[in-house]
Specification:
Helices cover 12% and strands 21% of the residues. The protein has eight helices and twelve strands. The chain is α+β, with helices and mostly antiparallel strands and 313 residues long. The strands form two sheets. Strands 3, 4, 7, 8, 9, 11 and 12 form a seven-stranded mixed β-sheet that branches. A hairpin with a 5-residue loop joins strand 11 and strand 12. The chain has one domain (11-303): Sulfite Oxidase, Chain A, domain 2, CATH 3.90.420.10. The structure holds ligand MTE. Ligand MTE binds next to loops.
């Protein structure tokens, strides 16, 4: 993201017909969510099918990105900066079990919890979300997981908990670029304001396409924040901290003028090195317009009432 201008961003590409659907379709339901059945099973060998996944009303009625693309075009810098490499390098190296998540900081009930217990209190559900990378490509992905808010509530965040900080595993044996790519301040970190984390759209994914997350997608547990650029959706989480001050995050620390803390999808605020007005949906040729808050404005715009989104980008 930082080092190279993505090859996808070509000014010569033409504006597509307005083929996107209205954001009202977010809650429209529909068949898209279950269209994956035909391709399920193509997941890497380590993936296991997940039982008792409830249908949810959180779907977009848009064509799903293929399982092949979702799991072979990845950003996972702990393995490579090349998008086709995490699928080759992460499976086998990343050990998603046993896995614990430590929750600490400004909360009444801190603890270290086995990942399976971490999500057990909520029923697994499928959510079909748009996924918009800051590099101007996008996908539509059927995630499986649980809403983040109720999981966090169990740890009883206190009155000083204003933000939530997330951290990826730090282990160069499992994540080799943590030893070799020294320009990055490992471990990968991200953060949300507490009210963002509690928003019903914020999601903890443990699977996609009906199966457990493949390593390259952030096994065994990752964040999904669909109205923000994809880099906020931190993979392979081992620690969550309730904090009073805005926490440092990897991309913001590296290049604050390029990657803001909020990083809400916003077609009117360009990245200093490329436009954010359009995006290329993986699997499609023509670009499509990028939607404010990635099409989730009706749900999330209220979180930012009164804020200057040019300044707090
Ligand atoms: N989390 C970790 N730990 N390391 C990463 O390199 N990349 C981010 C985000 N989470 C990243 C990460 C970026 S830039 C994006 S766009 C998404 O993961 C990519 O998710 P995907 O590979 O499942 O599409």
């Amino acid at each position: 993201m930082l080092i190279r201008r993505p090859p996808d961003v070509r000014p010569s590409e033409i504006t597509p017909q307005s083929s996107y659907l209205s954001r009202r379709n977010l809650l429209a339901g529909g068949a898209a969510a279950f269209a994956w059945a035909a391709t399920a099973g193509a997941n890497p060998a380590s993936a296991e099918s997940l039982d008792k996944v409830a249908k949810s009303s959180f779907v977009v009625d848009e064509k799903l990105t293929s399982l092949e693309d979702v799991t072979h075009y990845n950003n996972f810098y702990e393995y490579s900066i090349d998008k086709d490499q995490p699928a080759r390098l992460a499976p086998g190296r990343l050990k998603p079990r046993p896995w614990t998540v430590k929750v600490e900081g400004e909360c009444g009930k801190p603890g270290v919890v086995d990942v399976d217990d971490f999500v057990r209190h909520s029923a697994l559900e499928e959510r079909v979300y748009r996924h918009r990378c800051v590099e101007a490509w996008s996908m539509v992905i059927p995630w499986v997981g649980v809403p983040l808010g109720p999981v966090l509530q169990r740890f009883e965040p206190g009155s000083k908990a204003k933000y939530v900080a997330f951290q990826t595993l730090l282990d160069a044996e499992q994540m080799p670029e943590q030893r070799t790519s020294l320009i990055y301040p490992w471990p990968y970190t991200e953060g949300l304001r507490l009210d963002e984390a509690m928003h019903p759209l914020a999601f903890l994914a443990v699977g996609l396409y009906g199966e457990t997350l493949p390593a390259q997608s952030g096994a065994p547990i990752r964040l999904v924040v669909p109205w923000k650029y994809g880099f906020k959706s931190i993979k392979s989480i081992v620690a969550i901290r309730f904090v009073e001050q805005q926490p440092p995050t990897l991309w913001n620390a590296l290049a604050p003028s390029e990657y803001g803390f909020y990083s809400n999808v916003n077609p009117t605020v360009d990245h200093p090195r490329w436009s954010q007005a359009k995006e290329r949906r993986i699997g499609e040729f023509l670009k499509r317009p990028t939607l404010m808050f990635n099409g989730y404005g009706e749900q999330v715009a209220g979180l930012y009432a009164g804020m200057d989104l040019n300044r707090d980008f």
